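Exercise 3.2. Students should predict the tertiary structure of the chain below and write it as structure tokens, then compare their answer with the key that follows.

Predict this chain's 3D structure.
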Amino acid sequence: MLPMAEEKRAEDLGRRERKKRELREALESNALRLFQRKGYDATTIQDITDAVDVSVRTFFRYFDSKEAVLFGDWRKYTESSYHLIMSRPPEEPPLVALFEAAKELVKLDRENEDRLKLIQKLVSKSRKIGDYERNVIYPEFERSVARALAERMGVDVRKDPRPVLAAAMAAAAWTTARKLWMASGGKLSMTELLEMAFDFASQAAGQQPETQRKRGRRH
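Answer key:
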């Protein structure tokens, strides 16, 4: 058993972490509600903090911008992409590993479907949202994918262009499929869109598409 003083410290730490998590969630939920009601550009950070009754300074302890609160914990998403790629069998070609990892990321999209639909709705009315995706989120996603590929291939990403190129192709396939899925209101199959996008990327790279090879084995 832990000494009483250490047990008390552990309880206090757990309570502080829980309060931080609850405050972050409150900031996010109120921000999303305000974005829906007032519009993204018309909603200020002051509006969001007033709704939660905290200071603007407190807001910046959790988010570095208004765009960041809209997209939530997107860095967790990029970390997941890295680990999913690294978990694939080492003998898999890069684009195959990327496709299989992307199919797992679809599950995360399903968990955040309401937020993604809101982003799709807001992005057509605010240039800042699209700029944040292009200039902050997508480059970080590509770097995470390229790092995983470089480690799998045993090469230096600073000297070998292949991991970066494959990551760019995968990011383009992923974002294109996702945009079509979001534009359809989630009615199209994200997995099927990914298959088409990655098959085309494979053909462009001079490889036989993995989905075609799988279909061939079934016949």
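Discussion points: Residues 215-219 have pLDDT under 50 and may be disordered. The CA atoms of residues 113 and 174 lie 16 Å apart.
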